[in-house]
Protein: AA_permease_C domain-containing protein
Organism: Caenorhabditis tropicalis
Amino acid sequence: MRFSALRERAFRLKNLPTGELATPLRRCLSTFDITLLGVGHMIGAGIYVLTGSVVRNTAGPSIVLSFMLAGFASLLSALCYAEFGARFPKAGSAYTYAYVGAGELWAFIIGWNIVLEHMLGAAAVARSWSGYLDSLLGNVISNSTIAETGHLNKISSIFGDHPDFLAFLLIVFVAFFVALGSKVSTNFNSFLTILNIGVVVIVVFYGITFADLSLWEGVNENGESRFFPYGVSGMFAGAASCFFAYIGFDGLATAGEEAKNPSRSIPIATFSSMTIVTLSYVLMSASLTLMIPYDMVHPTAAFADAFSMHGAQFASHAVSLGALFGMTTSLVGGMFALPRCVFAMAEDGLLFSSLASVNPKTQVPVQALLVFGFLTAIIALLFDITTLVEFLSIGTLLAYSIVSACVIILRYQPAYNIEDEQFDNGGKLRFSIPFCKFLGKLQPGHSIYYGMSLMITTMFLSSFGFSIGCLHGSIVSQLFLFINIFLTILSFLFICVHYPNNTPLEFKVPFVPVVPALSLLINILMMVHLAWITWIRLAVWMAAGFAIYFGYGVHHSKEEVRDSEQFTKSSTYESVLSGVVSGATSPP
């Protein structure tokens, strides 16, 4: 296959009519169901387990700002998701959105990372659930397991201390519930989520009665700010870690194919769940860091331990119960979204077609659930939770970034106006740019790809420059930083001088391209603060994915089949036409 042909195939767009609702899955979910699915997915290990670790080791009390920043970045991404949910109400999350906006290869990259996101997220939650229950039982489970199997992390630091058989069985149990059907699993999720919200209310309002404002004020004996003990960089690093707590809203988009009215339900459920969750995270982390000093926070059972230190045993038990409820709903949300994303990719031919089979009775992609659910259970059995969470954030941020970029791209493409029977001005320049006459010769909307490529590249280089201290470095490093900032602004302004299209939608992201560009910038800022080993792990995962795509997906894609059929029809038509013409012009 020639390079030009391969490039054309890799960047072809998915042919999906606007408002297409045909699906083999059952449309039975209300806006309320989907909202609680998002809340349940997000309020789990993210708050009950992750908070203690980030407060103790990364951000201190400034975790309140970390959650705000991560929540703000997630909200900006959620706006972009909501527009796509109204534009293309299909399953597959960011995967489908990238397919219709950026091309097949980008869609595969995002889909492959979303699959990993749900697998690692579910494994991390299951391992957290097991660890939390074990700590409540006095470490009986872990001690007996180690006595039988020995320490697993002696092989490598990426493995857990011991094989977590309870986490393995928990994933199998939840996968069984999910396999019973979307309505059964969402009803189970809704019940536990409502109980969990009740526990959040107890933590916030009872915990604040023990508040000591001096824990946030002034400096400690080492001269460090009590609110920023790890500095502002610690707050940013904490925000990157806290992003793990918000991965659930991405799973809402995967419910689009089972929502009764997806164009309306997905945007409403996204904003409602994001508001509830962000408010809960900020208030709970504030309550925790005002109850006890940050360096006394328990890394895995933070809230229960904090109440115990104040002698509030009832609240401690309530929080422990709420933590188990919350992590269970988070696990249900992850296992609900996982097979549906695999199903979307397999249905499009980018993954093996057998994974797209749907059970005729429950209307659930059971084979995708069995294969990837088993892999998730194996990951939970073997790997350390810290390794899972570190690897999880980068794939999530990458997916959110590409969705934001796709919103800008689609807004500046020409749209066909049915009433006028012609294309609008979308993607055309408002005026000619000096010394850039070649831009006027490009097809409308094509120059946006150049502007987006430059903006994303310079955003990444600028963020990297800030992270390594170029602002306070040598003149050369400062010049490097300022040039990239200037090019970022210039590319943004270049996008602004194009006409947007006037496609009517039930919801649109306001202030495009400002909002999605800001989302891109914040996501990239957090990505560059992740550990380098996380990037290496991502490269290994993507190498495996590219082997599948270029070995199987690029040849079995539905778009490949459609292109081949159109080529065959076109060739047949031309042959017939040629015969007719030659017959008409040949002498009798």
User: Anything to note?
Assistant: The longest helix spans residues 313-347. The two ends are 45 Å apart (CA to CA). The longest strand covers residues 416-417. Residues 423-530 form one domain.
